[in-house]
Amino acid sequence: MSQYPHQSFPWDRSRSFAGQWITNETFRGAEPINVFHRQLDKVKLPETPLNQHILFRKRFTLRKPESATLYITADDCYRLFINGAFVTQGPCPGYPFHYYYNAIDVTPYLADGENVIAAHTYYQGLINRVWVSGDNRHGLLLDLVADGGTVLSSDRSFVTHIHTGFSQMGKSGYETQFLERYDSGSGEAGFAAPEFDDSGWAGASVRAHADYALYEQPTPQLDFERVAPALVEPIPGGVRVDFGAMYVGKLAVSASGNRGDTVRILCGQELNADGSVRYNLRCNCRFEEEWILSGGDDTLYQFDYKAFRYAELLYPDSVVLEPGSLTLVAQHYPFELSARCESADPDHRAVFDLCVRSLKYGAQEVIQDCMEREKGQYLGDGCYSAIAHAALSGDPRVLEKLVEDSLRSAFVNKGLMTCTTCSLMQEIADYPLWLPMLVRMYAALTGKLDRVAAWYDGIVDILEFYRIEYERGGLLYDLDKWCVVEWPATARDGYDYDITEGRVCKGTHNVINAYYVGAVKATNKLAAMVGRPQYRDHAPLLDAYLRAFYDEDSGLFRDAAGSNHCAMSSNAAALYLGLCPDKRSERAVVDMIRRKRLSAGMFYSTWAAFWGLWRVGEKALVLDLIRDKDGWLRMLREGATATFEGWGKDSKWNTSLFHLTFTFPALFLTEWGVDEALE
Asked: Which CATH number covers residue 53?
């Protein structure tokens, strides 16, 4: 294997900080914990503190600068305030050996004379898909550069305090976040205001074990957008709010009442039959939180985000909401539509608009799959949604980050991890094999062959790992990674092979081998594009695949050797990847797709079917399937304002109603290079 430097790329910008990593006494001497391991390895990690909201403040004086840039980072993350104004939050998730900092123009926020910088940092402590947390790493680091000189750096002169206003009400999702109880009467409420009294706070500590390599975040800061309610209606004991569509963000509202009055906050993505907010979501999240009033004039301050449309605020008669103050603060990756729907069909336009809105309001600091349950950067799902995001916006940076973060996960396992820049260790065998095809699409979209060339050796490393670890006689056997094939299992069209997660997938089966051959073919194409020798001849692999899985009589592909079952997943993958031996076989697969339409699969087989149909000239069938009444149009009939995690709300037992994977139809409705991506 090559000595490919997964930690950095030629365009990565690093910085030496004058500031020190500051933290509080809890984390001052905490030694980092290695949370990284193969998924099937039995590892018990030490417990660390949980749900730590740690505040920092610093007063300083300067002359109003003509220009000022704040270089800042924190672990797990920060929210930044200057002179009481919210500035931004960050950084995007990263590995300690390639951790991100933000460079922020703060000129408009600074005043002549005394200034106050305040940061709300957070250490979640959970092992999940959101951050690299649970690893005992916490801290804040910053340098303020004004008119070319460093005027402020993080050090012991900063003061710090735990925000006692936050207490947790349980966990939501796959231990993704803590539900929040916020007390406006806490001593730290209003901590960002310049006049706040921090005289009782302790001096910051310098972290003893700051083992980061720092690089400027390659993606922009999030946009924050205040969304007014479409409808506010009184209900017994409070109000119900409809923001008109699904968003990702948090509530903002001001109120007054007695000290200790509690506002119960219920958020949801849909309403129950009686009109109340369904706060126990289909995706197995519960959005029930509380706000405790101080007895004065208060403003709700929530830290983490949720994906929701509706909210109920329930409170005693002594509570008065400030008229007009109730809004939703939506957060999302900056997005401007730079493509248009090329179809005049109203159904196509409706699906296109749904995909656009989902990507605009769904993408965060990473391309995530669902916005509430996992909240993580998945390589597999991201292959679909990241290319759609880039094609529609003309901005490939979040796609590039997905590719590079994925390649960096090779430090755990050369075959890559499923979720990246996080502490949950999951491995899905299919996903890394999709990466060469994604990079081929990226090349068609952007023409940025310098990036492709820099990624090439990392892609070869993946295939070499699969070759050495699993290949026998041209086929992959006994994978110690989960072969997902299609999700959920009920959407696999009876796929005739046991691919249960959490165990070695004994033997061999169709779909993983189809993607293996396809990955080698795509890598050879990438090699030709960047002037490298062919990686390896794919012909022997294709021959082994056909001998094992092709049924000469029907022209279809079996799920496994010895099986007579031909699932949609097996055949859609073969058509997509150009594995059919002749036109007769292609026609047999097309006929299967035409007959089964969208009933025999979900995300992955539909993606493969669309690309396969497009490859063999069946573009009209792709466009027909996009407007199938049981697909995206069913989502719209069920009230979708963001793409679902299935064809409808009841498609699976834990359906997310804000899931980005199903945004890929937009790729076939606009001009971006889809034909070039198949060459």
From this structure: 2.60.120.260
On the 0-12 / 13-18 / 19+ scale of CB atoms within 10 A, 565 is middle
The answer for 420, left when phi > 0, alpha when psi is -120 to 50, beta otherwise, is beta
What does 515-531 look like in DSSP terms, one character per residue?
Answer: HHHHHHHHHHHHHHHTT
Q: What angle do CA 434, 617, 624 make, to 5 degrees?
A: 90
Q: Do 268 and 133 belong together in one domain?
A: no
pLDDT digits (tens, 9 = 90+) for 18-77: 999 999 999 999 999 999 999 999 999 999 999 999 999 999 999 999 999 999 999 999
Tokens representing 469 are: 């670890």
Q: What is the pLDDT of residues 229-284, one digit of tens each?
A: 999 999 999 999 999 999 999 999 999 999 999 999 999 999 999 999 999 999 99
Based on the domain organization, do 196 and 258 belong to the same domain?
no
Other CB atoms within 10 Å distance of the CB of residue 651: 17
Residue 221 has what DSSP assignment? P
Q: Give the pairing of strands 166-172 and 177-183.
A: antiparallel
For residue 235, the enclosing domain spans 225-332
Instruction: Decide if 489 contacts 653 (C-beta within 8 A).
Output: no
CA distance 571 to 176: 36
DSSP states of 97-120: TBEEEEEEE-GGG--SEEEEEEEE
Q: Tell which residue, 331, 329, 321, has the closest CA to residue 233.
A: 321
Euclidean distance between CA atoms 553 and 429, whole angstroms: 30
What is the residue whose two structure tokens read 């007009």? 324
Compute CA 504 distance to the chain's CA centroid, rounded to the nearest angstrom. 27
Measured CA to CA, the distance from residue 573 to residue 584 in angstroms comes to 16
How much is the CA Rg of the chain, to the nearest whole Å?
Answer: 26
- Give the pLDDT confidence of 484-537 residue by residue, as tens digits: 999 999 999 999 999 999 999 999 999 999 999 999 999 999 999 999 999 999
As a whole number of angstroms, the distance between CA 291 and CA 496 comes to 51
Which string of DSSP letters, residue by residue, matches 285-296? -B-EEEEE--SS
